[in-house]
Specification:
Blueprint lengths: L11 H7 L5 H13 L5 H8 L4 H12 L13 H4 L4 H7 L1 E7 L2 E6 L5 H11 L2 E6 L2 H28 L5 H6 L6 H16 L4 E6 L3 E8 L2 E4 L4 E2 L3 H11 L11 E9 L2 E12 L2 E8 L17 H11 L4 E6 L6 H12 L6 E5 L10 E4 L8 H8 L6 E4 L5 H12 L3 E6 L4 H10 L4 H7 E13 L5 E5 L2 H6 L6 E5 L13 E12 L2 H8 L4 H10 L5 H10 L5 H8 L3
Parallel strand pairs: 2-3, 11-15, 11-16, 12-13, 12-14, 14-15
Antiparallel strand pairs: 1-2, 4-5, 4-10, 5-6, 5-7, 8-9, 9-10, 16-19, 17-18
Helix pairs in contact: 2-3, 8-10, 10-11, 14-15, 15-17, 16-20, 17-19, 19-20, 21-22
């Protein structure tokens, strides 16, 4: 006898309507689809249709079953409670114990009427089980985060114990200890923990007495509480080199590699880079966008409605060059991929040349650079022009030769997308001319430039209001009188992992090269002159965009200065 079956008969739809999550018409549509499906639950059908979120469905179930709803992302989770249930059991039954109250174990579940699970847990833990409803996604993330931290601690402690064992220098150098369990476990758990914390990079650094491990999260490096003995640094680096298909015997020159792992059912790609330092090799692992993740739309990346209208003017052009500029790590590649997602059609041939291919897009022909084999940006571009392309994406314009070919491709009727490292949109024109491209060719080919930065967003749960009174700061936001803005709360809160910030968004400065700007380019105008004309034409500078966010309480003065301040 199955206890979970009655969920199908619950009037969950009515509760969702009463609480304003959906309307009657949407409920009827979902019921019709459920009748034609192969015995699916109504809630699952509505999730597939995108009518409700997992949280809304869980809250409706909470009302119907009179079982409290728990938001694991904001709830203080007791590590002792978590460990009452073994990891294998937690993953198998999709449950997470998160608190202990008078010998009662509070357990988050997405199936609160499956009483068999709770009886089993009661026998196993010797405690009274109190089920609480949460979403499947929240439980899965919490299980990954809390048990993985335990495994990291376990692997590090095993390394500490192993340090006391006798190990010759020859054994270390030959890599005989590389396949031991603690090293393999530690490297895997570092990658999994970074993935679950939404980190973008892992830094593994050797010093005289220790190996330091840091994650880059929301643009900031955060040191992890992993006490790794320096004696095992070479073993960790060698294990990563094996994964990345790199030469483990070569330690004198920088090396690059790449590997993939399945984490929480998602294939995650990693790019590895090592460089020799004083105390040993430093390794940086970049977490690349998942191959399974859908390409996000440009409007999901923080572009304002005003800037989006200018952006649409650029991508409507049948030919020309669109450049995305900004420093390393400012989201340029993500913007290019989102643009390709908007342009990709069955009747359009899109070819990209990248180093490396960071995200695989269905329907787009993507080429990987290989300098050793002679597959450079310039060589690849020449070949691509013989592949009958409509749209070409060049990962980065690094030299005059690549710039020249890209410009010529645009003039001969192709739409070319690429990135360049400059500080603002106007100086991009000057950079192309400095690379050796004739000003008249830049003027006739470049249709638009997007400069962008990433700024951290304030946590809405704990941000604090204060009055800005400093005259210099007031000038930065274009005010003369004191104004109320927000700053992060010291120590943050549970929702923002005690950082005071909750994610990042992009700010943009867009120049559409209208006829008057083309004339300035042809005449050899300076970046300042081009920028002034662009402002008259409606371009909003990076500072204008981030100032709006500061005054709206979405980000901080520190982020304004970091993103846009110049001497």
């Amino acid at each position: 006898m199955q206890m979970a079956a009655p969920i199908k008969n619950l009037p969950i739809g009515k509760i969702l309507v009463e609480n304003g999550f959906i309307n009657e018409a949407q409920l009827e549509e979902a019921l019709a689809k459920q009748r034609s499906s192969d015995g699916k639950m109504l809630g699952d059908v509505m999730l597939e249709m995108g009518l409700v979120s997992e949280t809304q469905l869980a809250q409706a179930l909470s009302i119907r079953l009179k079982v409290p709803f728990v938001d694991l992302s904001t709830t203080q989770i007791n590590r002792e409670a978590v460990m009452k249930i073994p990891e294998e059991k937690a993953k198998e039954k999709l449950v997470l114990a998160y608190a202990i109250n008078n010998n009662r174990l509070l357990v988050a579940t997405n199936d609160p009427i499956n009483f068999y699970i709770f009886e089993e847990l009661k026998v196993q833990t010797g405690m009274e089980i109190v089920p609480q409803i949460s979403t499947k996604t929240a439980i899965t993330e919490a299980i990954g985060k809390f048990y993985s931290q335990q495994q990291v601690d376990s692997a590090v402690s095993e390394l500490g114990e192993a340090q006391g064992d006798e190990m010759s220098a020859e054994q270390q150098e030959s890599g005989e200890r590389i396949d031991n369990a603690p090293i393999v476990k530690l490297v895997n758990m570092m990658a999994e923990t970074a993935f679950r914390l939404k980190a973008t990079d892992i830094h593994i650094e050797a010093f005289k007495t220790r190996t330091r491990i840091r994650f880059r999260m929301d643009g900031e490096l955060v040191e992890q509480d992993m006490k790794v003995p320096i004696a095992f640094h070479n073993s960790i680096i060698t294990r990563i080199k094996i994964l990345g298909g790199m030469n483990i015997a070569e330690k004198r020159i920088p090396l690059d590699g790449r590997y993939s792992m399945i984490i929480d059912g998602i294939q995650q790609d990693f790019r590895v880079s090592t460089i020799p330092c004083v105390w040993g090799e430093k390794c940086v692992i970049r977490l690349l966008s998942s191959a399974d993740e859908k390409t996000r739309r440009i409007t999901d990346l923080g572009m304002t409605d005003y800037n989006y209208e200018m952006y649409k003017q650029i991508i409507r052009c049948p030919n020309g060059v669109m450049l995305v500029t900004g420093p390393t790590g400012s989201g340029k590649s993500t913007t290019l991929y989102a643009t390709l997602g908007e342009l990709s059609q069955p009747n359009v041939n899109i070819v990209t040349v990248e180093d490396p291919v960071e995200k695989r897009i269905d329907g787009v022909n993507q080429c990987q650079i290989n300098d050793k084999a002679g597959m450079t940006f310039a060589a690849a571009l020449r070949s691509i022009l013989r592949q009958d392309p409509d749209i070409i994406m060049v990962g980065e314009i690094r030299d005059g030769e690549t710039a020249d070919i890209a410009i010529r491709a645009a003039i001969t009727g192709h739409f070319v997308l690429s990135t360049l490292h400059t500080n603002d949109a106007a100086s991009t024109i000057v950079r192309l001319v400095d690379m050796g491209v004739a000003p008249y060719m830049v003027a006739s080919s470049v249709v638009g430039i997007i400069a962008q930065r990433l700024v951290k967003l304030l946590c809405n749960e704990c941000k604090e209001k204060y009055t800005l009174t400093d005259p210099a700061d007031l000038r930065l936001v274009g005010k003369t009188q004191p104004v109320d803005i927000y700053r992060p709360k010291k120590g943050g809160c549970k929702a923002c992992r005690n950082t005071g910030h909750a994610g990042r968004t992009a700010i943009h400065e867009i120049i559409v090269t209208s006829n008057d700007i083309k004339e300035l380019i042809s005449a050899g105008a300076t970046a300042e002159e081009i920028g002034e004309q662009a402002k008259k034409n409606g371009t909003r500078l990076l500072r204008d965009n981030v100032t709006e966010m500061v005054l709206a309480g979405r980000t901080t003065m520190d982020e304004l200065v970091k993103a846009t301040y110049t001497v």
